[in-house]
Amino acid sequence: MHSALSPRSWGRRLGLMTALAAALLASAGVSAQTAVKFSLNYKPDGSNAPWFLAQERGYFKAAGLDVTLDASNGTGDVLARLGNNSYDFGFADSSSLIEFAARNPQQAPVAVLMLYANSPLSVIALKKSGITKPADLVGKRVGGPVSDGAYRMFPAFARRASVDLSKVKIENVDIRVRETVLARGDVDAVTGFDSSVWFNLKTMGLKQDDVVFLRYADFGLDLYGNALMVSRKLLTTQPKVVEAFVRATAMGWRDALADPAAAIEALAKRDPLVNKPIETEKLQWLLKNQIASPATRSAGLGVVDPARLASQIDTVAAAFDLPAKPAPDAVYDGRFLPAAADRKLPQ
Q1: Largest distance between two CA atoms of the chain
Q2: Topology of 7-117+225-343 in CATH?
Q3: Please, what sign has the CA dihedral across residues 299, 221, 258, 109?
Q4: pLDDT in tens, 235-257
């Protein structure tokens, strides 16, 4: 049995690994300083801090990439940006990607690194609402932002959990005030990522015992979550750039999961107003609830089970009554999966 490494030991090891990064990344053959635009899943926070750490540690620069990291309004926004080629890469929900690919096969981006082995899509309520199970949503008001993956997949969750959608009042809520309207009782529940909603509520003074999570995965929707995606244009025209960006991303996540505090320090240099303790805890939450799985513990980040992905495509197709199901290779391209050492989870 291997003993857990201390943060200091991890720091020394990662320092040596960083020294080798330039040589490793240079092997991708990218020309010097290729400009790349990356769309975050939302505003800069703990869920995307690993990209800021990768940038700070020079992984992108060593690969010849000049990366711009921009906030977004959620998954729908990210997919639109990649679909119209205004951005090269993005971080978004894979179920929403499947729907987008079915409706826009020529413009749809492609996932190239699956980061969330477990989907964070959830309905979140306060205990005082009386909601403890999906059936309790009948007659209630459920709010969510239309661009959010959990909002878009809510009908699939409701059907799988035998909830009559005609008896649930669904409201469009701006993502910037989602937790506020929940806390003050304007809606009975909201849709979103468990971590995003919970940590926003925590900053408002709520306790975890006050909150109920109805995770889609707990009610039969065995879905992958967020993935690194690339525009179809860049995938076709500059595969070496894709290879380099994926590898640098994996290295940034590897480092961030081993040392969350370092990732949040890098994030704070972008936004000095971030709540460091909250964002550190959010990153640790993601490791425990979304990223860690038997497969990722064994083989590292990015492992995709073809059968599970095919099942997810079937689920999404049925949920949205899609005109046609996209092929798995139109949704996920595993050619750029980096070496296991660059994707290894901390022990």
Answers
A1: 59
A2: D-Maltodextrin-Binding Protein; domain 2 (3.40.190)
A3: positive
A4: 999 999 999 999 999 999 999 99
